[in-house]
Amino acid sequence: MEYKKPMGVDIDLETGVIPGAKKLVRRLSDLKGYFQDEEAYAELLKENPVVYEVYAVEQEAKDGDLNFATTVLHPGKVGKEFFFTKGHYHSKADRAEIYYGIKGRGGMLLQTPEGRAEWIEMRPGTVVYVPPYWAHRTVNTGDEPFVFLAVYPADAGHDYGSIAEKGFSKLVVEENGEVRVVDNPKWKE
Ligand SMILES: O=P(O)(O)OC[C@H]1O[C@](O)(CO)[C@@H](O)[C@@H]1O
Ligand SMILES: [Fe+2]
Question: Boundaries of each Glucose-6-phosphate isomerase prokaryote domain copy (predicted)?
Fold first, then answer.
């Protein structure tokens, strides 16, 4: 039996960086079609800001192993909608996941394949359990970077398709200076 070597790494709790991790950057241009307000999207696209960065430590996609990653989700809005991660189901849909809030303010939108949505607020110290079969997207509702850790089965995979096409049944927007979770007018089952 070949045993893997255990490891410990220190997340920089200010920046969210995991030393030695694989870095992925998603700019606004990577989120084409995701936001409601197409005019506001086109306007902000001139700057094409970084929406989020992911620092991932991933293993071979085998049953029983675990990956972990931090995400630094920047503050911002497209029209009334707060910046968010793409959101996905797992390719192996029954795989669960754990998130842990490190810095900043935000929350997670979760959704069943039938479109039943849940919103869970996150702050530093919040643990979110993502049950099997739920799509999940994080949203930065604050004015500083929202940093969190995710731990997920190495064989979970990412299924972006249906969220990229249809989005979530709820939107997280700012209205009169308040964070509101409202129905997505374009949602169709
Ligand atoms: O994969 P998305 O939806 O762009 O969101 C990024 C975050 O979600 C994860 O894919 C885990 O669910 C992480 O890699 C990262 O924390
Ligand atoms: Fe996930």
Answer: 25-181
CB 73 within 8 A of CB 138: yes
Closest ligand 1 atom, CA of 149? 16
Q: Specify burial of residue 137 (Cβ count, 10 A radius: 0-12, 13-18, 19+).
A: buried
Rounded CA-CA distance 32/144 in Å is 23
ipTM for the complex shown: 0.95
* 188, 125 Cβ separation under 8 angstroms: no
Residue 85, pLDDT above cutoff 90:
yes
Domains along the sequence of the chain with CATH: 22-183 (2.60.120.10)
Q: Which residue reads 């939107």 in tokens?
A: 171
Neighbours of ion ligand 2 (CB under 5 A): 97
Nearest residue CA, atom 13 of ligand 1? 69
